[in-house]
Write a structure and sequence with these properties.
Elements lengths: L11 H6 L5 E3 L8 H9 L4 E4 L5 H14 L4 E6 L8 H17 L19 H9 L4 E5 L5 H9 L3 E6 L2 H9 L4 E5 L5 E2 L14 H11 L4 E4 L5 H9 L4 E4 L13 H8 L6 E4 L7 E4 L2 H5 L10 H5 L1 H10 L22 H18 L1
Parallel strand pairs: 1-9, 2-3, 3-4, 4-5, 5-6, 6-8, 8-9
Antiparallel strand pairs: 7-11, 10-11
Helix pairs in contact: 2-3, 9-14
C-alpha cells in the first residue's frame, strides 16, 4: 500500500503553477515534444517545450498541439544569450578548426564561407507573441530578459522562471522579478545556464548549490541536475527545494523525440559517460563523451549557436560511417543510467510514488 498522499508536501511551486505535483519536465529543445509535454501535464506535473530554436509559426503549431491534448500547465523556454559574431574571421577560424576532422572522415575541406543565420535570442517579437498567447509559465536560460519584459509577462498572468548555476545568479534572478529560480547543478544534462559573467561556469554540484540558494533567496527554488528517481526528488525537497526539474529521466519515454542512437546510448549509460563540451554548439553542455567533443571541450571555434550549423555535414557523414567518436550531440546528465523506458504519465506517477515512500522513511 502506498503511503498517504498527505505525506507529499504542499509547495509554493505547485500552488504557483497550479499543478498537483511539483515535477517539471525540462523543456529540452528538439527532444521535448507536444506529446511529452501534454502527457506530463495530464499526469499532474508541468510540461515544457524548448522554444528557443523554433520560428514563431512552428511555436504556434507546437503550442496548439499541446493545448489540444491537455488543459494542464505548459512552460515555454527561451534563450537569452548574446547574438553571435558571424564575420569572415570567425568563418575562417571555424573552417580551420574543422579541417582535420573532415580529413579524418575523408571529406573535402570545409570552406570558409559566410556562417549561416541562426535563431535570435529572446526578442521583442517573441515577447509580443507570448503576451498575445500567454502560457502558464515562461522560462529563460543563459540569462535574463529585461526586467520590463519580465514585469509585462507577469502582468499578463505568466509565471516567470530562470536558470541559475550559482547563488549570485539566483539572486540576480530574484532581483529581476522572476517568480521562482531553477538551481541547475553541475550534474545536469544539456546546456549550462551560467550567465554571471556569461563566459564563466563555476561547476557547482546540485547538493552543494541547492541549500545555499534556498538560504539566499526568498522566491521558491526548483532543483535540477542528476534527478531521475523519487529518492533524488525527496532529497532535493529535504534540502529546501519546492520542486524539481527532470530532463534526462524523460528521454526514454516513447513521447520524447529521442533518436534511436541516443536511446541506445542511454540504455547502456553509466555515471562516467558524459563530459562538458562546447564543441557542438559553442557553449558548455553536458553530453555523451566523444573524441570530437573533447577536441573542443573548452575552446569553441565560434560563438553559440553557430557551431551546430557548421558541424552538420561532418556529423552526418560520421553517422553514415558509424563513427561513434563523432557521435551526434547526445545531451544527457550524469544520472542517465537511472532513466527508464516508460510512458511519460507512468513515469510521473512512479516518480511521485517513490518520492512519497522516501519522504515517509525520512
Amino acid at each position: 500500500m502506498s503511503p498517504p498522499a498527505a505525506r507529499w508536501p504542499a509547495t509554493r511551486v505547485a500552488r504557483l503553477f497550479g499543478i498537483e505535483l511539483p515535477i517539471l519536465q525540462a523543456p529540452m529543445a528538439r527532444a521535448a515534444t507536444p506529446a511529452l509535454a501534454a502527457a506530463v501535464a495530464n499526469a499532474g506535473g508541468l510540461g515544457g517545450l524548448g522554444s528557443a530554436t523554433l520560428s514563431l509559426a512552428a511555436l504556434a503549431t507546437e503550442v496548439a498541439a499541446v493545448r489540444a491534448a491537455t488543459n494542464g500547465g505548459l512552460n515555454l523556454n527561451f534563450f537569452c544569450h548574446a547574438p553571435p559574431r558571424a564575420d569572415a574571421a570567425t568563418a575562417a577560424a571555424a573552417a580551420a578548426a574543422l579541417a582535420p576532422h573532415h580529413a579524418a572522415l575523408g571529406l573535402a575541406p570545409p570552406e570558409a564561407a559566410a556562417l549561416p543565420a541562426v535563431p535570435p535570442p529572446f526578442d521583442a517579437a517573441r515577447l509580443d507573441w507570448l503576451l498575445a498567447h500567454p502560457p502558464r509559465v515562461a522560462s529563460f536560460h543563459f540569462g535574463l530578459p529585461p526586467a520590463a519584459a519580465i514585469a509585462r509577462l507577469r502582468a499578463a498572468g505568466v509565471r516567470v522562471l530562470a536558470t541559475a548555476t550559482t547563488l549570485a545568479e539566483a539572486r540576480a534572478v530574484e532581483d529581476a522579478g522572476c517568480d521562482a529560480v531553477i538551481a541547475q547543478g553541475w550534474e545536469a544534462g544539456g546546456h549550462r545556464g551560467a550567465f554571471l559573467p556569461e563566459a564563466a561556469d563555476r561547476g557547482v554540484g546540485l547538493f552543494a548549490l541547492l541549500p545555499q540558494v534556498v538560504d539566499g533567496v526568498a522566491i521558491p527554488v526548483i532543483a535540477a541536475g542528476g534527478i531521475a528517481d523519487g529518492r533524488a526528488i525527496a532529497a532535493a525537497l529535504m534540502l529546501g527545494a519546492e520542486g524539481v526539474q527532470i530532463g534526462t529521466g524523460f528521454l526514454l519515454c516513447p513521447e520524447a523525440a529521442t533518436s534511436p542512437a541516443a536511446r541506445a546510448a542511454l540504455a547502456a549509460a553509466t555515471d562516467a559517460d558524459t563530459h562538458l563540451t562546447a564543441a557542438y554548439s559553442g557553449r558548455p553542455a553536458r553530453a555523451r563523451a566523444t573524441a570530437f567533443g573533447a577536441a573542443f571541450q573548452s575552446a569553441p571555434f565560434a560563438d553559440y549557436p553557430l557551431p551546430r550549423a557548421v558541424t552538420g555535414p561532418l556529423l552526418a557523414a560520421a553517422a553514415a560511417a558509424g563513427r561513434e567518436d563523432y557521435a551526434s550531440f547526445h545531451l544527457q546528465g550524469q544520472a542517465a543510467a537511472l532513466a527508464r523506458t516508460l510512458p511519460a504519465a507512468d513515469l510521473v506517477a512512479r516518480l511521485a510514488a517513490e518520492a512519497r515512500v522516501a519522504l515517509t522513511r525520512s
